[in-house]
Design goal:
mainly alpha; two-stranded antiparallel sheet; globular
Length: 589
């Protein structure tokens, strides 16, 4: 049965590719039909619908390179190398000219038009009883959310864009879109919120494990993390719209995934899933740790199966990967598109065009661990010095061993890797950002620093445990981290360590206006924790817009360029003090 399903998906995936101008991953293409098929021959049943969804995600993966470059190189943590081409230098210097492929909105719209075509045909399938209502709702919600995510990215980078939800005869012909009115970012966000809120709540959760599209792995890859998480997208949209309570309510649903999906409350998964679990004793987790405890600075847990680094290397069949990652997509040597990050970052078998900025390295080195080591170990795990040069390693750990320079696979041509899109740390930082703005500063401080139980325990000795280690607040701010041994009890959040606690760092202080101080610390912590994962430029834009403070963004980019001895530093800062210059020129022709 399994092989017959895969074959059906393969035939439909290729047929759909022929119809819409994109090709799905080649592991789905089991049969080469002689001729292109009509839509009636493609959209026949739920398995064909699954093939359409997988096909558009295959096309979506082609945006990975553009996504990382725009969201990181435009900001303050990534810099160009001597090997960078002119287009990357333009992005870095905020001086983009027409023809720059990284600043081209057309690849985004190609996926959007594919989504529109799928949604139209799904509706026809529903009307013709080729899909049940629940099957339609699940898949339509997924495609709608993916399209909304792409539109949010377009708005962040281009400021005002055409918002199109209808189909076109030729998905490759984008010239007609150029003459359409453009929707500004603030309006676009509200439109996307309306679109996402229209999805019935029961269909905002991920596909269930019994849904045909995720029931069986594809080429050994489970698909449970492959699809967009609709709730984190909706939470992010609320956050961009300054609807802080709605943002925290939505994020909290994801934080409580273990309880909501019926995971055994006595299991490790219950306490670890999306909760920023504290460090264990054997480094078999995602926390910063040392092989001998804390005494030897040279014994940092630094392997594909140990500590914080391992979240970027473990295959998505392992528990700890699933406890952290909410959305990730694998690149594999056996299917297209090819992993683009080798070429960008590797100096072993790539072009080594992008590297960590000195500004980022200085930021990691300015932190102090609880064992008084004077650096943030996450920096040493995010990048490595390879063959004498600093190399961003987050995307390379499944490709090359940084100590030896040898490939992880049989050859350097096996360019396996992952596109990292959203994880538990992102979720906690965003929840804390919204909670802080909603007046829950102590809770935001706890999630940022060393966790719920420690922050909300004012008297660790001789206190009544029933009155400590919990927020005693209304939902969604009701976190319970209490635990005791006589009698034995463990509340759901008792293992929460906080972002900095998991990294083994000392707490950050609150200075001056507590709301702004905590927000500043959260955005800085996002830099330390999430560097190069595609979150940095949106973070800077969101905060600068919220405060109406262009210098918040401009100064950080300026410091990066200044420390790199970039002669354009002052001119770029002056340019970015005008928020209209945060957005790229929108050209479709």
């Amino acid at each position: 049965m399994k092989s017959s399903v895969k074959k059906k998906i393969g035939i439909a995936g290729l047929a759909f590719g022929l119809l819409t101008g994109f090709s799905a991953c080649t592991n789905l293409l089991d049969v080469d039909p002689k001729d292109a098929l009509t839509s009636e021959q493609v959209y026949r049943n739920v398995f064909d619908a699954d093939a359409a969804v997988l096909g558009v995600y295959g096309k979506f993966m082609s945006l990975a390179k553009q996504y990382v470059v725009l969201n990181e190189l435009r900001a303050d943590l990534m810099d160009v190398t001597a090997g960078a081409d002119e287009q990357l230098r333009q992005i870095n210097n905020h001086n983009v000219v027409q023809g720059n492929s990284y600043a081209d909105p057309r690849p985004y719209y190609e996926v959007i038009l594919n989504c529109n075509d799928i949604l139209k045909n799904f509706k026809i399938m529903l009307e013709q009883n080729k899909m049940r209502v629940d099957e339609y709702n699940q898949r339509a919600a997924d495609i709608t959310a993916l399209r909304s995510w792409i539109y949010l990215q377009l708005g962040i980078h281009f400021g005002a864009v055409p918002y199109v939800t209808t189909t076109y005869e030729n998905a490759a012909d984008l010239t007609a879109l150029a003459s359409l009115p453009k929707m500004p970012l603030e309006t676009l966000i509200k439109e996307l919120i309306t679109t996402m809120e229209a999805i019935p709540p029961v269909y905002r959760d991920p596909y269930t494990t019994t849904t045909s599209i995720v029931a069986a792995p594809v080429d050994g890859y489970p698909l449970n993390k492959f699809f967009i998480n609709k709730l984190v997208l909706l939470g992010d949209l609320y956050l961009w719209d300054n609807q802080y309570l709605k943002a925290t309510q939505t994020y909290r649903l994801v934080m409580e995934t273990a309880a909501r999906t019926g995971i055994d409350p006595n299991s490790e998964a219950f306490y670890a899933t999306y909760k920023i679990h504290y460090a264990g004793t054997a480094n078999n987790d995602l926390a910063v740790g040392y092989l001998d405890g804390v005494s030897d600075v040279n014994k940092l847990a630094d392997a594909n199966t140990l500590g914080w680094r391992s979240m970027f290397a473990r295959r998505n069949t392992e528990n700890w990967f699933n406890y952290e990652w909410i959305w990730s997509m694998p690149f594999d040597k056996n299917f297209k598109p090819e992993n683009p990050f080798i070429d960008l970052f590797s100096n072993i078998n790539g072009r080594y065009q992008l590297a960590p900025a000195k500004q980022a390295i200085d930021l990691w080195n300015s932190q102090v661990q609880t064992n008084n080591f004077p650096f943030d170990a996450r920096g040493r795990l995010t990048y490595k010095t390879v063959a004498g040069s600093p190399v961003i390693m987050k995307y390379l750990y499944n490709y090359v061993d940084p100590r030896t320079g040898l490939p992880i696979g049989a050859t350097l041509q096996e360019k396996n890797g992952t596109w990292f899109l959203y994880r538990a740390a992102t979720l906690h930082l965003r929840f804390a950002e919204a909670a802080n703005r909603d007046g829950r500063r102590k809770l935001a401080y706890a999630l940022l620093n060393n966790g719920i139980s420690t922050t909300f325990d004012s008297d660790p000795v001789g206190r009544d445990e029933s009155l400590q280690q919990a927020t005693f607040d209304v939902p969604p701010y009701d976190f319970n981290a209490r635990n005791g041994d006589v009698p034995l009890f463990r509340e759901p959040w008792y293992r929460n360590a906080g972002i900095r606690g998991r990294a083994g760092l000392q707490n950050v202080a609150v200075v001056g206006d507590s709301t702004v101080s905590i927000e500043n610390s959260l955005i800085q912590e996002a830099a330390l924790e999430l560097a190069y994962e595609g979150q940095r430029w949106p973070d800077l834009v969101r905060i600068a817009l919220r405060r109406n403070e262009p210098a918040f963004l401009a100064d950080k980019v300026y410091q990066k360029l200044l420390k790199a001895n970039n002669p354009n530093a002052e001119a770029v800062r002056t340019k970015l003090m005008d928020k209209s210059n945060w957005f790229l020129p929108f050209k479709l022709k």
